[in-house]
Amino acid sequence: MTLAFSPADLTLPCAHFIGGEYVRDTAAMEVRAPSTGAVIARVPVADAAMVDRAVGAARQALAVSGWSGLRPRERLAALHRWADLIEAEALTLARLEAVCSSRPVSHALTGDVAVTAEQIRFFAEFADKEGGDLVPTGDGSFGFIAAEPYGVVGAIAPWNFPISMAGWKLGPALAAGNAVVLKPSEMTPFSTLYMAELSVRAGIPAGLVNVVLGDGAVTGTAITAHPGIDKVSFTGSTRAGAAIMENIARTGIKPMTLELGGKSPMVVFDDADPDLAADCLERGILPNAGQFCVAGSRILVQRGIADALAAKLAERFARPAPAATWEEEAGFSPIISEPQLQRIDGIVQAARAQGGEILCGGGRFDRVGSFYRPTLIAGVSATNPAVTEEIFGPVATFQTFETEDEAMQLAAHPTYGLCAGLFTRDLSRALRCTRRLEAGTVWVNRYGRSRDHILPTGGWKASGLGKDLGREAFAANRRTKSVLIDL
User: Fold this and answer.
1) Which CATH fold topology does 7-260+464-486 show?
2) pLDDT (tens digit, 9 = 90+) per residue, 70-92?
3) What pTM does this model have?
4) Is 293 considered catalytic here?
5) Which of these is catalytic: 14, 293, 419, 433?
6) Which residue in the list 197, 259, 282, 390 is annotated as catalytic?
7) Which residues of 42-65 are buried (b: 16+ CB within 10 A; e: fewer)?
């Protein structure tokens, strides 16, 4: 099987997907390939009327199909058929993902698409295994808690892992009996559109999965404000999450799940396995060119091993070679857009101006496309912009500490609390620090999510509200009703 392809050979779906069919609209927005900067397509922007059409299709599909009232195993079977089709169409999905994103086609094929199918199967299994609760009451009454779907979930997914983030939204919502109106990023819509098409081919009733294209200002605002949207699920920046909260508060209260930004620390004590730590620190910031919310962008190392580890990391950071996302061999990923690359470089240069020492990188690769060199910055204070701001690029800061207390003080961030990493052979220290770290997820002697989808993910502080993945994600797509019957 040949993975390499030419973008010119792909047929790209450039329309909304509503009610089980593609809906054409005025192509108002360019989609560029970050590997070259070339325009590869133009897509429409759904206005409030188009979003209303999608919400209407979702509500009609729920009413006609009886999806929420089906025998749970029927929903389970339909979702499994969808996962089968995703696996069968993996190469097509991987190419549609790679052409406009930062994901190399080989990574999309073996990672993103495969994980998406796994996630849908995982959530499908909750359909017939999670119900309400019978609760203890007095002898003269009968009490129970019923769990029911919300109805229509409005979902907004980011550009960095398009298809797997769509799976995060669609899998639990559908398994719980809801319909979905999903907005993918305007920069990476194509794999999500084809995934929606596959849902209908799998026998999921048309209209339960709707995809509307557009940006956050117009389409995202219309989704979160729509009175027919019963619950909102968003993954993206903290700033955008705050805007969504404000819009919901202004237009009508509804529940929301928000997975937002991060500025995660990776804390390395001097008793850690140095090679394991170096591997994890590299994997914590360089994949996808650092464009992932859980990136370990603040490296904190005990002083006794700091110089040796810094040299080891600088050597590793110098190795990656960029390549277009559609090439056979995976290369270092591009930055999603030229404006984002300029933002990354602006923070790096500001960090340098405020006393940061660039140990490696510090600029773009000299080639076509939006590629930025892996960058390691030492000598930074707690107020340096490279420490305080979420960069969303292949840039990490390197700070040192003497004591465990100092490490925990440095690890604390005034804004974010998404993830943290700990590296030590001392179990007692690991347990102490795990309790002290203000983060929704802590990894010890590893860094990054596994394919154990049972583990929920979500942040503390301004890194989010609620959880994705795990049992918690399924529960977040249902509301409960307390029932008490006098006998």
Assistant:
1) Aldehyde Dehydrogenase; Chain A, domain 1 (3.40.605)
2) 999 999 999 999 999 999 999 99
3) 0.95
4) yes
5) 293
6) 259
7) ebbbbbeebbbbbbbbbbebbeeb
